[in-house]
Structure formats: C-alpha cells, structure tokens
Design brief:
Layout (H helix, E strand, L loop, with lengths): L7 H11 L4 E2 L2 H4 L16 E3 L4 H14 L3 E4 L18 E4 L6 E5 L4 E5 L4 H10 L2 E2 L12 H6 L7 H4 L2 H4 E7 L5 E4 L12 H5 L8 E8 L1 E2 L3 E9 L2 H14 L4 E8 H10 L13 E9 L5 H15 L5 E4 L3 H12 L1 H7 L3 E2 L2 E3 L5 H15 L4 E2 L2 E3 L4 E3 L2 E2 L6 H5 L2 H14 L18 H4 L2 H14 L16
Bound molecules: flavin-adenine dinucleotide, D-malate and zinc ion (ZN).
Length: 478
C-alpha cells in the first residue's frame, strides 16, 4: 500500500491521469519536496504530482478541488521563505512543474521566449544565449530555480537595477487557476490595455492564486562589451555615492551594482573553495559593479577606469580589481553569488530581505546592526545585496559555536527589530523573496485597510475553498 492520505479513488484517477512517473507517494521519494533549501521547514505531503502538460495539470487541480485536497505548487524548491513547502499535516499534494520543461520558441522579431514553467532559469538563459540574445534575470539560484518559480515570486536579483524584476519581463502567461480552469493570456504585446492585466495577479502571488504553466518572457540583445570590477569601499555611504557617480555618468550602462559587507565577504573567503579575496587586504565593505553595452567598442572600459579613478581620488574606493577576461569576470561573480551558501555553512541564520529608500541605506545598516548586536551579543551581522535597488539582505548569522536551535528560537525578535527600523524608514520587510510562510505573521501589521481587504477578496474569489498553497502570504483566512 502506498504511504498516502489521499482517498483511494482519487489516487487511482491521478495515477491513471499522470502515469507512473507523474505521481510519487512513498515518503522516501517525496521527502526532498517537503523540505526547503534553508532546512527551516520539514513538511509532509500525501503525494507529489508531476504533470507533464497544462491539460494534465488542470485535470489534477480539478480533481484535488473535488476531493478538498490542498495543493502546494513547486518549481525548483529554492524559496527562501518556505513558500513551496507543505505543512506537517500530510494532507496536501505538492504539484511540481519540473516535467513541464520545454522551451517552445524564441522570436527574434519580438525578442521574446515562450517557455514552460519547469524550465530552469539557467536553461532558459542558455537557450537565449545560443541565439545571441539575453534573458536578463540573474539570481544565484538560477541553476535550480524555474521560470514558474521566479514568476510566482516576482524574483529580482542582480540585473533588476537595469531590467526590472521578473514582473517587468513577462509579457504573457498561462496558468491553471484554483478551480482547474486554464487562464491563457499568452500574448507577446508590449501594449495591451484591454481590461485588467491578469497575468500580473499571478506574478508574485507565490502559488496562492494558481499554477503558472507557460510564459512569454522578454529578451534583450546579448551585450557585446562588459566591464566588471570588485571595489573595496570604506563604508556603506561610499558604496551608495559610487552608485550615484556611475548613474550620473551613464545610468543605462549599469548592469549590476551589488553590495557586500566585510563580514559577509569574510564568510565567503573562508568557507567557499576558490573564493579568496582578490584584493590586497580586507575592507569594511565591497561593491561589485558591472557595466554592459550592446556596442562592441571600448567605451565601457574608459567609463569604468575614469569613474573608478575619480572615486579613488575622492576616497570612495580604496582598492579595486577589474576583470581582464571572462574567466576573471566569472570568478568575481562567484564571490558574490556564494554569499547565501557561505551563510548557510556558517550555521543558523535569520534573513531579512528588506528594501528601503536608497538614501536611508547607511542609516538603516548602522541602526539595525546596533540593535541586533544589542539583542544578541556576538551575533554576526552580515548584510549584502542589491544596493542599487535599495534591497539589502540584512542577514544575521548565529554567534560562532552557539546552539543553532536556540538562535533560531529568537528569529521573530530579530526580524521584528529589523522590520521596526525598516518601517520607520518607509521600507518593505519583503523585497524580493516573498512572504511565504516565514513572514506570514507580519502581514496584518504591514498591510491593512482596503489593501489587505482587496487581497483577501481576490484570494477568496479565485480560491474560495483556500486550497491553493494555504498558509502562505496570509495568516489563516478567518
Ligand atoms: P519554488 O521555491 O519552488 O517556489 C517559490 C514560490 O513560488 C512558492 O510559493 C511556490 O508555491 C510558488 N511556485 C513555484 N512554482 C510555481 C508555479 N509554476 N506557479 C505558481 N506558483 C509557483 N530570489 C530573488 O528574487 N533574488 C535573488 O537574488 C535570489 N537569490 C537566491 C539565491 C539562492 C542561493 C537561493 C536558494 C534562493 C534565491 N532567491 C532569490 C529566492 C527564490 O525566490 C528564487 O530562487 C526563485 O525565485 C524561486 O524559484 P523556484 O522555482 O525555486 O520556486
Ligand atoms: C542573494 O541575493 O544572493 C539572495 O537573494 C540572498 C540571500 O541569501 O538572502
Ligand atoms: Zn538577492
């Protein structure tokens, strides 16, 4: 007998619908789908459903609704907020999109890619690259994260500063709604003011309003010149001033502008192989700046050298290394992209994925650091992130040698302390990772009145039985 809480008739119908590789019921097979990347949550599920087509997905959803079975959509399972992890009841099914993994077409006239939800972001980027184009969404988890997942979370990442979040890149969408009907808004239009933009409801809805199955994503020409530099800076204000300097010179050339605190960089240097600091000595903070252009001339090199030269003279930069080859560029990016992994290896950590108005970032980091160090002496405050977007990952790593569970037991105290300062500065406690189940408790104090009311009404209209990813974003619907 399979190990599942699904009613026997439902199980039999799903098996017939999805085929042998389309449904997993043994705990040994489903376990990895029930744990998140950060290992914060260990849920259980009645089964993992793996439909290979939109049609099969829609039928599976309709069957789950008929039997009142909760559903948890899942892509690459890289959520930082437990968004794709089922609860511990074992009643829900995980609906994994990984078998819907076809790149359907690339359109050179419209500069778009039509792609199924289960294609990894990296596979989609590579397919665009092969055609001389670029999918301009870049996140450290791109090897595992799927197109459906990045749209469902409205992912941001390293290139948002130039191209926007996932939301800005999606022109069209197909999704299975919580009643099993298929919403098909697979258009390639940049202008389409015909009623509500329903695709935007699904984007960023974290699997609570339906399952994204296919999308039309905007592409860009592949850059033909790039300049990348890792800079040591004396403090956060200098990082921000450097950003303003580049922006003044040529805002359209800034492809990425990433901030790393000295503490976070030191964790990468010591805990990740081949990630030694490529500068003469450690600094209080660092910036990784990348300029890119579709032109093939050497004007970006001049822009980078002149801007950094002036920044040295003004004391904004104390040291810098410029990538002289693609290999060196990738090494610099690896140092940035391994921050999440280094913090994972350093023990338990509490993540505060926040955004604040740009000018307030130095004040935010200073005040939040002091507050957290007062709360937990010896805590390792290790912020980094997408400073050009005002998005700081104000991450807190347990004191060395401390008990991870005891540290995590204080997670709300830490998150509330940081969020309190974010609120005073007019920021957001949930910048790019979403609310998931981790931050659900914060919603009522951050969103109220007509805003929260409208969100609840939309949820209730599309999912009256609250079966689509329950317990995520909203505290339990009352
Ligand atoms: P999952 O983790 O599987 O799911 C995430 C949420 O989306 C869940 O709520 C799930 O129910 C829902 N969902 C998944 N697929 C679908 C679908 N097809 N339809 C409807 N709902 C769906 N995020 C950033 O924004 N910027 C970063 O720089 C960034 N860096 C990261 C680095 C690392 C090392 C890791 C582990 C994560 C990072 N993330 C980042 C967080 C994460 O949100 C992204 O990796 C990605 O957007 C999630 O994609 P996924 O396919 O793994 O989604
Ligand atoms: C990143 O930008 O690397 C991730 O979004 C941040 C994190 O690990 O908190
Ligand atoms: Zn990030």
């Amino acid at each position: 007998m399979p190990d599942t809480l699904l009613p026997a008739p439902l199980l039999a119908t799903l098996q017939e619908l999805l085929g042998p590789s389309g449904i997993l019921t043994e705990a040994s097979d489903t376990q990895s789908y029930c744990t998140d990347w950060r290992m914060l949550y260990q849920g259980k599920c009645a089964a993992v459903l793996r439909p290979a087509t939109t049609e099969a997905c829609a039928k599976a959803v309709a069957l789950c609704v008929q039997y009142g079975v909760p559903m948890v959509p899942q892509g690459g399972n890289t959520s930082m907020v437990g968004g794709a992890t089922p609860d511990t009841s074992g009643k829900a099914v995980v609906i994994s999109t990984t078998r819907m993994n076809r790149i359907i077409s690339i359109d050179h006239a419209d500069l778009t890619m039509t792609v199924e939800a289960g294609v990894t972001l990296k596979a989609a980027q590579d397919a665009a690259l092969k055609e001389g184009l670029m999918l301009p969404l870049s996140i450290s988890s791109e090897g595992s994260a799927d197109i459906g997942g990045v749209l469902a979370t409205n992912a941001g990442g390293n290139n948002t500063v130039r191209y926007g979040n996932a939301r800005e890149l999606a022109l069209g969408l197909e999704a299975v709604l919580p009643d099993g009907s298929v919403l098909n808004v697979m258009r390639k239009l940049r202008k389409d003011n015909t009623g509500y933009a329903l695709r935007q409801l699904l984007i960023g809805s974290e699997g609570t309003l339906g399952i994204i199955t296919t999308a039309v994503i905007q592409l860009q020409p592949q850059p033909r010149s790039r300049e990348t530099a890792l800079c040591a800076v004396p403090n956060t204000q200098a990082a921000l001033d450097l950003f303003a300097t580049f922006r003044k010179q040529d805002p359209a050339a800034i492809q990425a502008f990433e901030y790393m605190s000295g503490t976070s960089m030191a964790l990468v240097n010591s805990l990740i192989e081949n990630c030694a600091l490529p500068l003469s000595e450690p600094a209080p903070a660092y910036v990784l700046v990348e300029l890119a252009s579709p032109r093939a001339d050497d004007s970006l090199r001049a822009l980078m050298e002149e801007t950094l030269g002036t920044a040295f003279e003004n004391g904004l930069v104390s040291d810098a290394v410029l990538a002289e080859s693609e290999t060196q560029r990738q090494t610099l990016w690896m140092i940035r992209e391994e921050h999440a992994e280094a913090q994972k290896r350093a023990g338990a950590s509490v993540k505060n994925d926040v955004s604040v108005p740009l000018a307030t970032i130095p004040d935010f980091i200073e005040r939040a650091t002091l507050a957290c160090e007062t709360l937990i002496p010896d805590i390792r405050v290790a912020p980094f992130g997408h400073i050009g977007d005002g998005n700081i990952h104000f991450n807190l790593v347990q004191p060395e040698g401390a008990d991870p569970a005891a540290f995590l037991a204080q997670d709300h105290a830490m998150m509330d302390t940081v969020a309190g300062i974010v609120r005073e500065l007019g920021g957001s406690f949930s910048a790019e990772h979403g609310v998931g189940q981790l931050k659900t408790y914060m919603m009522p104090s951050w969103r109220g009145g007509a805003e929260l009311d409208s969100m609840r009404k939309i949820k209730a209209a599309l999912d009256p039985k609250n079966l689509m990813n329950p317990g995520k974003i909203f505290p339990d619907v009352d």
